[in-house]
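Try this one yourself first.
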C-alpha cells in the first residue's frame, strides 16, 4: 500500500463521525477515533506512544528525558510524558499532542540511553519504531485531527455542561473535518510535505520498498550487475519494468504469477528485478520444509552415527528429505572419479 493511500484511509477513518442524532457528541467523536485505530498504521502509532510513555516511567530514564527537555526546550514547563488513558479521552488527546511536541527531546534521550552499557534493547527498538516514515505520517494525522477535536473533548469534561454549546461545538468539529475530507488532496499534500520536512530534521531516511529490498539483498544483487548501484539506476530500471506491464489490463495482471513474471523478465535488461524475483519465488511459503529437516535428523543422527561429520550428515539428510529426486549411481561414480586423487599413472 502506498503512503498516500495510508494517509487517506487513516484520515477518512478518523473522521467517520456518526450522523445519528441520538448519539451524544462525545460518543460520536470517540466512535470515530476508535474506528480509526483499526488502521494498522494508526494502531501501531498509538501503541508506540504508549510504549514510550511506559519506558520513561522509571526514575533513572525519566531524569535523562527531563535533562533532554531542558536542553532542547528551556522555556517549557512540561517534563513528563502522559500515558494514553482508557477512560478520559481528553488525556489521550493531550498525550498524543505532547508526544509530538517533545519528540526531539524523546529521540535525544533514547539516543543517550542506547549508549548505556547495561541498557537492554527496548530503547533501540523504540528508537527504530519512531524513526519510521509510517509512524511519523500517522502521528502527523493524529495530531492534526486530535488538535481539532481537543477543545470539544476538554469542554465535555467540564462540570456545568451546556448541551446547546456542546452540540454547537460538535457540529463545528464535524464541519471542519468534513472540509478536510472534501479537500483531501490538498490536505494530503500538506501533511506529506510536513512529514518529509520533519524526517529531514530527524535524519530519517525516506526509502521506497524497492530500494529497501535491494539493500536487504545487497550481496546477492551485487553479483548480477557490474555497475555501482545508485538511486537513478534503480528508479530507471523500475520505471522501465513498469512500462513493460503498463499495457496489460488488471485482469491479465491477476492471471500472472511470480514464476511467469520471472521467466518473462530478461536478466540482461532487468538484472536487479530478475534477481529479486528469483529470490521471491524461492522463498518458502511455510515452515514445513524446516520442520521436516528436524524430523529427518531425529531419524538419521542415532547413537551409531553420532560421530558423523557435518558434510556426511548434510548429504544423508538431503537424500532422505528429497527422496523424489532420482539419483543416478553412474553420475555419482563419475563425479567421485573426477575428484579422486588416488589414481596412479601406470607407464607401460
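Now uncover the answer:
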Amino acid at each position: 500500500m502506498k503512503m498516500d493511500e495510508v494517509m487517506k484511509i487513516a484520515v477518512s477513518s478518523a473522521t467517520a463521525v456518526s450522523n445519528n442524532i441520538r448519539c451524544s457528541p462525545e460518543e460520536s467523536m470517540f466512535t470515530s477515533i476508535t474506528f480509526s485505530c483499526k488502521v494498522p498504521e494508526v494502531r501501531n502509532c498509538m501503541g508506540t506512544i504508549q510504549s514510550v510513555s511506559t519506558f520513561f516511567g522509571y526514575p533513572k530514564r525519566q531524569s535523562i528525558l527531563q535533562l533532554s527537555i531542558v536542553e532542547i526546550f528551556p522555556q517549557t514547563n512540561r517534563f513528563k510524558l502522559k500515558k494514553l488513558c482508557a477512560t478520559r479521552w481528553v488525556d489521550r488527546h493531550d498525550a498524543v499532542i505532547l508526544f509530538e511536541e517533545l519528540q526531539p527531546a524523546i529521540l535525544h534521550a533514547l539516543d543517550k540511553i542506547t549508549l548505556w552499557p547495561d541498557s537492554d534493547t527496548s530503547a533501540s527498538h523504540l528508537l527504530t519504531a519512531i524513526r519510521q516514515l509510517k509512524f511519523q505520517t500517522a502521528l502527523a494525522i493524529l495530531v492534526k485531527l486530535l488538535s481539532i477535536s481537543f477543545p470539544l473533548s476538554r469542554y465535555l469534561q467540564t462540570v456545568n455542561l451546556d448541551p446547546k454549546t456542546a452540540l454547537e461545538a460538535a457540529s463545528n468539529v464535524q464541519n471542519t473535518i468534513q472540509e478536510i475530507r472534501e479537500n483531501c488532496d490538498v490536505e494530503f499534500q500538506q501533511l506529506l510535505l510536513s512529514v518529509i520536512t520533519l524526517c529531514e530534521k530527524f535524519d530519517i531516511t525516506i526509502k521506497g520498498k524497492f530500494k529497501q529490498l535491494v539493500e536487504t539483498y545487497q550481496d546477492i544483487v551485487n553479483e548480477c550487475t557490474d555497475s555501482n548501484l545508485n538511486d537513478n539506476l534503480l528508479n530507471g530500471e523500475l520505471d522501465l519494468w513498469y512500462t513493460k506491464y503498463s499495457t496489460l489490463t488488471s485482469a491479465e495482471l491477476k492471471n500472472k504469477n511470480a514464476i511467469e513474471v520471472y521467466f518473462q523478465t530478461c536478466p540482461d535488461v532487468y538484472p536487479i528485478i530478475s534477481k529479486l524475483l528469483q529470490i521471491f519465488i524461492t522463498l518458502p511459503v511455510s515452515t514445513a520444509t524446516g520442520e521436516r529437516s528436524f524430523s529427518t535428523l531425529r531419524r538419521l543422527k542415532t547413537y551409531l552415527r553420532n560421530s558423523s561429520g557435518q558434510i556426511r550428515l548434510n548429504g544423508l539428510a538431503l537424500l532422505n528429505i528429497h527422496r523424489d529426486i532420482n539419483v543416478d549411481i553412474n553420475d555419482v561414480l563419475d563425479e567421485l572419479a573426477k575428484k579422486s586423487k588416488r589414481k596412479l599413472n601406470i607407464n607401460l
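Discussion: The first helix runs from residue 3 to 14. Confidence is low (pLDDT under 50) at residues 14-23.
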